[in-house]
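Q: Structure tokens for this one, please.
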Amino acid sequence: MQTERLAALLLTLVAVLLSQTFLQIAVCLGGGILLTVLLWLLQRRMLPSETRRQLDKLLHGSQRLILEGIYLNLSTASAAIKDDEQIGYEILREIATIVHNDRIRLQQIVLLQSFVLRKDMDLELEPLLIEDFDSDLAAYIGEIAKVKRELIKASAIRYLLIHERYILQMKQGASIMTAAAGAAVRMKKYVDMYPDFIRRYARGLPRERFLRLYQIVRRNPDQSWDGLRDEVSAIYNEKYRWDPDFQKWE
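A: Here is the predicted structure, written as tokens:
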């Protein structure tokens, strides 16, 4: 694109040098400058599409080399996993930014399950979600719900609800669902969106998470949430009626 602008300027210079009168010089100079400016504006508008075209051309021409590099990285990741799981996971994470498929996601999940997850770790969830049921993914969601609740969003809750029947067949299935419900009550919008889900697992919530749910219910006296309010009241009367932290919300 820069070549075209240089050519326009060169033609302008030649036209000026060949001009015989001041008027011809002015016309050639003005026309050349106008042509160069118009060419520059046109190229600016074409730049995004031209860049994409050149990138597609480059990727298409280098497709074999790119795939070979990805498979080499997968082999490197597999070898690294045996020596250092953290390095292996980081390699898989880098590959996942280019290759989006369930195989990579599941390998990441299996590796993450081998770590002791902490809140200060750079964890992720939504990029790892897949459509089909996977017990490792369900278990990972349960762990995330405990250590980094803010990662439990609508997409993760939908995954659990879609595969709830299979999750409950897992040894820790009920705990996974309860932990996710406990993470969901951090925001009222999830109580509004999934009241039946939260109602079913409210009885198993830890005291601190049930207190959060109780606060939401008390702040919204006009909402019943399809029986959730009644369930919360029943649990409160059975377990927390004399708890001073709950009595503050009477």
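A few notes: The mean pLDDT is 78. Residues 2-61 form one domain.
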